[in-house]
Amino acid sequence: MTDREELNRLRRKAQVQAQRDYWRVWYKQEEERLNRKYRSASHYVLASIIPFTESNLKLAFKPSAFFADLNKLSAGKSRQQFQLKTIKSAYYRTIRQGLVHLENDGLPRLTAKGRRRLALYQPKILGKNARLLLVFDVPERLRYKRDKLRTILKEFRFQQIQKSVWESRYDSRQYLQEVIKEERLEEYIVVYESVALNL
């Protein structure tokens, strides 16, 4: 092999590696963008019902891109690929939860509850040194609700102080109230607004 052939081979190898690196970075950025925009598979499926949204257009015109986005969403969360069964269960869960209603013509329509769920979560920052403090004691028999509550608290920008004590500098009382009522956890949770003292 001549020097020129060796140089061309190395150049092609470098180009292939650069292309792989480019697509790897692009895929990672796209995955992060989707995870910032959509909270879950249910959220993405709900958004696809609203006309002219990104997910709606993909579902209508590029179904493979729609399902690829679901794969990216799942890869960012649990590193498991969504299967058709998972997607169907997410869709039917939205119906059971009253987020979607099937019209007489069989087409799904968002309910008021579904529209509220899709609304962007944009809490205001509480006053200087003020914090929202949430304390809970959910029994072991409701462990799945406790785990769900912890996940929701992370989404609402709460930080864990102790196992069952969480704090946030964001005012998310309205959202918390809806979630607590929806999950029927009122008797297990206490929410305080407090001010940190400089001692």
Number of distinct beta strands: 8
- The termini sit apart by 76 Å
Number of domains: 2
* Percent range for β-strand residues: 15-25%
Mean pLDDT, to the nearest integer, reads: 78
- The share of residues in helices is 40-55%
Q: What report would you give on this structure?
A:
The protein is an alpha+beta fold. It has two domains: 3-118, no CATH class; 124-195, Alpha-Beta Plaits (2-Layer Sandwich). It is 54% helix and 16% strand. The chain has eight helices and eight strands, in the order αααααββαββαβββαβ. The strands form three sheets. It has a four-stranded antiparallel sheet, with no helix packed on it. Strands 1-2 form a two-stranded antiparallel ribbon. A two-stranded antiparallel sheet has the order 3-7. α2 packs across α5 (84-96). The N and C termini lie far apart (76 Å).
